[in-house]
Structure formats: structure tokens, C-alpha cells
Design goal:
Enzyme class: oxidoreductase
Main location: endoplasmic reticulum
CATH class: Alpha Beta
Largest sheet: 7 strands, parallel
Pathway: Lipid metabolism; sphingolipid metabolism; Sphingolipid metabolism
Protein name: 3-ketodihydrosphingosine reductase
Bound molecules: NADPH dihydro-nicotinamide-adenine-dinucleotide phosphate, 3-Dehydrosphinganine
Radius of gyration: 20 Å
GO molecular function, one term: 3-dehydrosphinganine reductase activity
Distance between the termini: 73 Å
Order of helices and strands: EHEHEHEHEHEHHHEHH
Strand content: 5-15%
Length: 302
């Protein structure tokens, strides 16, 4: 049986590693992103990992955040070539950080359209066929910053929180059709997108983020693909990832009795640990503010 996986943002970083991971397991791949050179480059890289000579990597150049009918059309065309999508991974996204008052209003609009609407459109385009076939996996790539809000991420965090609401509601709708939704919450991950983000990241954001160490995209991708295949609603990585997911489970669907029991038992402990983290984040913010005030005074008197 041939399995077809479609990965938005599949030309770079985490998305590319997810595509490689699926390809290694024998899937046919559709990569969706804007830049055609990067798409072709990624296609070549992915094809090195083939396990049989029938496997295909198809590239689609489209902006997932702009025009729904265009997204729907290209996905339809891809499905005509490679068959219906079994797994959709919504990984196209971007991050911009800065203090609330320093971020352009257009940045809020941009992040919401790429990170949120850019996940709605492809999902909306594949869901009807998935429901008809009674098969499917839809993966959303949120972020640890979609589990807690932190300094500098007023625009980014909200776009990543939005994904969670979408995923919870959608999962309740499609579960009877044997379709499983996964939301991934990666920590900082060493990708071209992360390097770009770091160019304008406020000091506070960097110091707070450094609480959790930077992951390799291959490792994040492996975990996401594994959780998606197993039909886990939650996908996280590392001990902080585990604690954050358990602590912020809210009314998220539960995948196993063990998972539910672990959440019940660990809640109080993890909240206690979280209070210490929150205290340390506040003191980072205060320290940075005092440092800036000091250097301003020094500049004036110099
Ligand atoms: N790296 C990190 O630290 C973390 C990342 N994440 C999330 O993981 C996802 C991937 O991140 P990462 O691998 O770092 O990012 P990269 O910048 O390395 O890759 C982003 C991918 O998305 C594509 N893309 C971006 N905007 C659009 C668009 N409007 N339409 C279609 N494709 C688009 C890019 O291609 P092109 O530009 O050609 O369109 C590229 O393929 C993002 O959603 C990010 O928020 C979550 C937690 C941590
Ligand atoms: C029990 C409680 C445990 C608490 C642990 C708290 C850790 C907070 C660190 C948050 C880091 C945010 C990473 C965002 C990554 C991202 O999305 C961008 N890099 C995208 O490019």
C-alpha cells in the first residue's frame, strides 16, 4: 500500500526533516513552500534516502497563507498525481519577536496569517477526502511558545496558541472518521528559521528561551512523525517538553489512560516547578530593564 504525506514548509528546517523521516518509511512526499530553488534543493536531498525506486517527491510552490482557492487547487492537483493525502503536516511558519510596542501591527497580521491561516487552508483542503476515506493524520506544528506566553512573543505566541484551539475542535469532529490530529510543541530548534529569528530577538527572549536547550531538527522530526503515526494528540520533546504538555493539558483530548493518569498525578508538582520558572523569568526581565537604565545613565553622563 502506498502512503502519501504532504508537508508544508517541507523545503527547510523541521519540515524538511519530517519529509525525510516519512520518505525513509516509504511514503510518497509532496513538499509545499514558496521558493522553488529551495524546494528543488530539498527534493534532491530527500531523494537520497529512498528505500525503493518507485518513491516520488513532488514540489508545489504556493504561499499557504494567501488565497484559499489557490491552495485548494494545487493540493487537488497534487492528489491527482500522488493519490489522496494520508498525512498532512502543517509546518510552514515563521517567527518574529520584539516588544509589543516595537512590533509593527502588520507583524501581528502576518504571523497570524502564516502560522494560523497557513495551517487552516491546507487542512481544510484535505479534510473532506480524508473523511470520505475514513483515514488520515493531520499534524500541526505549534511551539513551546504555544504553551506559554513569554517576553517578545506577543505576536508569535498568539499565532501558535490559535493552532491549539483549531486542533482541539477539529479532533473532536474527525475522531469518528478515524482521523487523528497531532499538535507538536518543539523547543528552540537549530534551523535556518531559528537563525533568522535570532537576528532580531530581544535579550530577554533569548535569556528566557535558554532555559531549554536547542534541539536538532532531525530529533524533533522523528518524534513528530512517531507521535503522528501513533495518533497521539500531543507531541513534545525532552523533560521540559513533557512537563509543559502535562501542565497545560487543559481540556485537550487524551490518547491513553496512562497519559491521563500521568497528567492527574503530576499536575500539582509541575505547577510548583512552573512557579519557580516564572519567578526566574520575571527576574530576567527586571535585570535586563535595570541594565538598560544603567547604561542609559552612563551614556548621558559620558
Ligand atoms: N526552529 C525553531 O526553533 C522552532 C520552530 N517551530 C515552528 O516549526 C515550523 C518550522 O520552523 P523552522 O524549520 O525553524 O523554519 P524554516 O524557516 O527553516 O522553514 C520554514 C519553511 O516554511 C516555508 N514557508 C514559510 N512561510 C511560508 C508560506 N507563507 N507559504 C508556504 N511556505 C512557507 C519555508 O519555505 P519558503 O520560505 O520558500 O516559503 C520553509 O520551507 C514553524 O512553524 C516554526 O514556527 C516551533 C518551535 C521551535
Ligand atoms: C513545569 C514547567 C516547565 C517550564 C519550562 C519552561 C521553558 C520555557 C522556554 C520557552 C522557550 C520557547 C521556545 C520557542 C521556540 C520557537 O518557537 C522559536 N524558536 C521559533 O523559531
Amino acid at each position: 500500500m502506498r502512503v502519501s504525506a504532504e508537508v508544508t514548509g517541507g523545503s527547510s528546517g523541521i519540515g524538511k526533516c519530517i519529509a525525510i523521516e516519512c520518505y525513509k518509511q516509504g511514503a510518497f512526499i509532496t513538499l509545499v513552500a514558496r521558493n522553488e530553488d529551495k524546494l528543488l534543493q530539498a527534493k534532491k536531498e530527500i531523494e537520497k534516502h529512498s528505500i525503493n525506486d518507485k518513491q516520488v517527491v513532488l514540489c508545489i510552490s504556493v504561499d499557504v497563507s494567501q488565497d484559499y482557492s489557490q491552495v485548494e487547487n494545487v493540493i487537488k492537483q497534487a492528489q491527482e498525481k500522488l493519490g489522496p493525502v494520508d498525512m498532512l503536516v502543517n509546518c510552514a511558519g515563521m517567527s518574529l519577536s520584539g516588544k509589543f510596542e516595537d512590533l509593527e501591527v502588520s507583524t501581528f497580521e502576518r504571523l497570524m496569517s502564516v502560522n494560523y491561516l497557513g495551517s487552516v487552508y491546507p487542512s481544510r483542503a484535505v479534510i473532506t477526502t480524508m473523511k470520505e476515506r475514513r483515514v488520515g493524520r493531520i499534524v500541526f506544528v505549534s511551539s513551546q511558545a504555544g504553551q506559554l506566553g513569554l517576553f517578545g512573543f506577543t505576536a508569535y505566541s498568539s499565532s501558535k496558541f490559535a493552532i491549539r484551539g483549531l486542533a482541539e475542535a477539529l479532533q473532536m469532529e474527525v475522531k469518528p472518521y478515524n482521523i487523528y490530529v497531532t499538535v507538536a510543541y518543539p523547543p528552540d530548534t537549530d534551523t535556518p528559521g531559528f537563525a533568522e529569528e535570532n537576528k532580531t530577538k530581544p535579550l530577554e527572549t533569548r535569556l528566557i528561551s535558554e532555559t531549554v536547550s536547542v534541539c536538532k531538527p532531525e530529533q524533533v522530526a522523528k518524534q513528530i512523525v512517531k507521535d503522528a503515526i501513533q495518533g497521539n494528540f500531543n507531541s513534545s520533546i525532552g523533560s521540559d517538553g513533557y512537563m509543559l504538555s502535562s501542565l497545560t493539558c487543559g481540556m485537550a483530548p487524551v490518547t491513553s489512560i496512562t497519559e491521563g493518569l500521568q497528567q492527574v498525578v503530576t499536575m500539582g508538582l509541575f505547577r510548583t516547578i512552573a512557579l519557580f520558572y516564572l519567578g526566574s523569568f520575571d527576574s530576567i526581565v527586571r535585570r535586563c530593564m535595570m541594565q538598560r537604565a544603567k547604561s542609559e545613565i552612563a551614556d548621558k553622563t559620558a
